Amino acid sequence: MTRGDTTSTLKMGMQFFYEDRQGHVFDERSSEDVYMEQCNKCCYTVYSDDDKSRFFHLFFSKCLNASAAARQLDLHVRAAQKWIKRYYEDPESIFEKKRKSGRRRILGEDHKQFLLNYIDENPSALVIEVTESLTQNFAGLNASHSTIYSFMTTERNHLLSRYSSSL
Predict the structure, then answer these.
(1) Which residues pair with 19 in a beta bridge?
(2) Which residues are CB-contacts of 133 (< 8 A; sequence separation ≥ 6)?
(3) Is residue 57 part of a domain?
């Protein structure tokens, strides 16, 4: 298929990608197949507080709208519009960093320290034994065997037996 037979266009920054009906992706400069992963990557821009300050200076003192001020400062227009929305909702929040989203960690620092100490004292302990000891010492903690195993293999590089004869 040629580039004229494209079914959709994907935009990434200032570079365009074209997809034919067979799942091949081409960029605008060549006819070589481009990996689809390149098209799916998101590029996030992190703006500093200085960027926001300059934007709000133009917005309020020069009486520019959000998109005009953003274009003058070479900022993404949609980001500037979100800043204005946040400002009108809560003026104190525009310079606050967003909290991390997602699942909170099961193991806190005190849990991790307990695990490291326990393994140092009992180097041949099974994952099941380590998990039972942790849950006995920390009431209300609900950590699975796989959580403990993952922590020990990534943080401590211990190769622990995942199963015991009692299972």
Answers:
(1) 8, 25
(2) 118, 125
(3) yes
**d(C-alpha 70, C-alpha 74), whole Å:** 6
- DSSP secondary structure letters along the chain: --GGG-SEEEEETTEEEEE-TTS-EEESS--SEE-HHHHH-----PPPHHHHHHHHHHHHHS---HHHHHHHHT--HHHHHHHHHHHHH-GGGTTSPPPPPSPPPSS-HHHHHHHHHHHHH-TT--HHHHHHHHHHHSTT----HHHHHHHHHHHS-----S--TT-
Spatial contact of 131 and 143, defined as CB atoms under 8 Å apart? yes
- CA angle 150-153-157, nearest 5°? 160
Domain with 55, as residue range(s), is: 49-93
Domain membership flag for residue 104: no
Quote the CA–CA distance of 25 and 41 in Å, as a whole number: 14
Per-residue pLDDT reduced to its tens digit, 136-146: 998 888 888 88
**Contact present, 20 and 5 (Cβ < 8 Å):** yes
pTM > 0.70: yes or no:
no
pLDDT tens digit sequence for 63-109: 889 999 999 999 999 999 999 999 998 888 888 877 667 778 888 88
